[in-house]
Amino acid sequence: MSFEKVKNYFSEKGLQDRIKVSNTSSATVDMEAEALGCKAKQIAKTLSFMVQGSPVLVVAAGKVKGANKKFKSRFCTRPKMIPGKLVKDGIGHDVGGAYRL
User: Fold this and answer.
1) I need a labelling partner for 75 at 20 to 30 A (CA). Which of 23, 48, 59, 84 fits?
2) Is 46 part of a structural domain of the chain?
């Protein structure tokens, strides 16, 4: 889902004023949390996977790590992250984007 689609969704729900975008690097959750003046657990991040040829996004709190067993239980396959250079075309945004909600 692209950032524009997320912004539109939040606008429909009356939450558009809760989105904050940083102009600094968001290469890591910790960097983005520092730039926005919040805790890493307040950062929403996406983990991008391929499942049966289709991209799947898992949205998680900034410090949450993926659980292979849970992923396999839900999707009936091992997690396979989308290579970084293919994320923008497959997902709609670059690797490293973080937004405080």
Assistant:
1) 84
2) yes
Task: Give the contacts of 34 (CB within 8 A, at least 6 positions apart).
Answer: none
CA–CA separation, 93 and 88 (whole Å): 5
The first and second tokens of residue 60, run together, are: 């998680």
d(CA 97, CA 62): 11
* Parent domain of 50: 3-87
Residue 98 maps to a domain: no
Taking only the tens place, the pLDDT of each residue in 54-91 is 888 888 888 888 788 888 999 898 888 888 778 777 77
Give the CATH number of the domain where residue 62 resides: 3.90.960.10
